[in-house]
Design goal:
16% helix, 5-stranded mixed β-sheet
């Protein structure tokens, strides 16, 4: 099983939650449908990643950037890699 450490640039209040792509610096740009208030966008990001990587609640966590649009995330307990998140 892998442990992934990913960095996201989060764009809240989008029509739907989806990965937009990867920036030149390796940061993954993602649109989140939830607003950036009371942790709603963070919760939506975690749920999206849990579904994408097919892991349970608690295996995805924000390690830094909880109040920032730039977030570092750790995903544990997955056999998938970054390609399951980024479409070519």
């Amino acid at each position: 099983m892998n442990e992934l450490h990913l960095t996201f640039k989060v764009i809240p209040n989008a029509p739907k939650t989806e990965v937009v792509g990867r920036m030149d610096n390796g940061v993954i740009k993602i649109k989140i449908s939830a607003p950036p208030e009371k942790g709603k966008a963070n919760q939506e990001l975690l749920k999206f990643l849990e579904r994408t990587f097919n892991v349970t609640k608690g295996e995805v966590s924000i390690t830094s950037g909880e109040t920032s649009r730039l977030k570092n995330v750790r995903v544990t307990g997955t056999h998938r890699d970054i390609s399951s998140l980024i479409k070519k």
